[in-house]
Amino acid sequence: MKFTASQIAGILEGELEGNPDIAVDKLAKIEEGEQGSLTFLANPKYTQHIYTTKSSITIVNKDFVAEHDLSTTLIKVDDAYESFSKLLEYYNQVKNNKTGIESPSFISASTTYGEDCYVGAFAYIGENVVLGDKVKIYPNVYVGDNVRLGDNVIVFAGAKIYSESVIGNNCVIHSGVIVGSDGFGFTPNAEGEYKKVPQTGNVIIEDNVDIGAGTTIDRATLGSTIIRKGVKLDNQIQIAHNVEIGEHTVIAAQTGVAGSTKIGKHCMIGGQVGIVGHITIGDNVRIQAQSGIGRNIKTGEVIQGSPALTYGDYNKSYVHFKNLPKIINRINEIEKKIGREQ
């Protein structure tokens, strides 16, 4: 897709300086730009590159004043970074604006769907599924029986949504995601053999949730696993049965949350964090990467380590951790000295 400078200026409500008809069809870093590419300048430390960039169009802040000649067409806006992000969002909307039903695909006769939906080739949609307006289901997606998808949901290729799952409006589910698979529920008998506990609940995902590639969210044993509105999950995260994640919490890759744990609102959880089951994490909690959480966490805590300590205590303790060999040597010397004196 090509966009002219005048079209981009119109989308961003920006001021155009240069050739209004010059067109771009790709994006580039300002220092790596080439003809036909669009870039932006938001960080002052990259200003030098605007005089040498070969990008056809550059988005800049309105207060930018060129000190040398430019070969690039400028679009001046209030906030170059925010405008560039807005343009990326617009580009994605245009790129993903697919409609219609591709063949071969299977859609149950009992499925209902809204306006402007897209179902890609080799997708499977089961019984009694309800699709909202402008739902996009890419090729090789599986949607089980009795699933509900809200408006403007995008399900990328290869994702699997098991039966009874409920997904709200404006959600994005990336490739390889599995929503609603069985929770890890087994119980030992008298002989020590593990028998499966039926997982009869479902998964509820509220509005404006993004789920990264390869992430898995298990259905509840009873009731629902719940992902509240605005949650953002990175790639390769495991959310176990009956977990609840509060509004606008973000979780980075390779984190695992065990069953029945409740996570509050506006939390930030780093990568490779392990969280045990049946605990409660309060609102506005910050958990540093690779921490191991084995206890309840109060609202507002910032923690790190495995097992996790408060962030301040961890940093103080780490000073001693790294000096342990020296401390041991000093203790040994003191013991030797005491031994000689006796």
Short description:
The chain is an alpha/beta fold. Helices cover 16% and strands 30% of the residues.
Structure, described:
By secondary structure, the protein is of the alpha/beta class. The protein is built from 4 helices and 40 strands. It has a 12-stranded mixed sheet. A 10-stranded parallel sheet has the order 9-12-15-18-21-26-29-32-35-38, with no helix packed on it. Strands 10-13-16-19-24-27-30-33-36 form a 9-stranded parallel sheet, with no helix packed on it. A hairpin with a 5-residue loop joins β22 (186-188) and β23. It is flat, with a radius of gyration of 27 Å.
Spell out the blueprint of helices and strands.
Blueprint: E1 3-4, H1 5-12, E2 15-17, E3 23-24, E4 26-27, E5 37-40, E6 57-61, E7 73-77, H2 80-95, E8 100-101, E9 106-107, E10 112-113, E11 118-119, E12 124-125, E13 130-131, E14 136-137, E15 142-143, E16 148-149, E17 154-155, E18 160-161, E19 166-167, E20 172-173, E21 178-181, E22 186-188, E23 194-196, E24 202-205, E25 210-211, E26 216-218, E27 224-227, E28 232-233, E29 238-239, E30 244-245, E31 250-251, E32 256-257, E33 262-263, E34 268-269, E35 274-275, E36 280-281, E37 286-287, E38 292-293, E39 302-305, E40 308-310, H3 311-322, H4 324-341
Parallel strand pairs: 4-5, 5-6, 6-7, 8-11, 9-12, 10-13, 11-14, 12-15, 13-16, 14-17, 15-18, 16-19, 17-20, 18-21, 19-24, 20-25, 21-26, 24-27, 25-28, 26-29, 27-30, 28-31, 29-32, 30-33, 31-34, 32-35, 33-36, 34-37, 35-38, 37-39
Antiparallel strand pairs: 1-3, 2-7, 22-23, 39-40
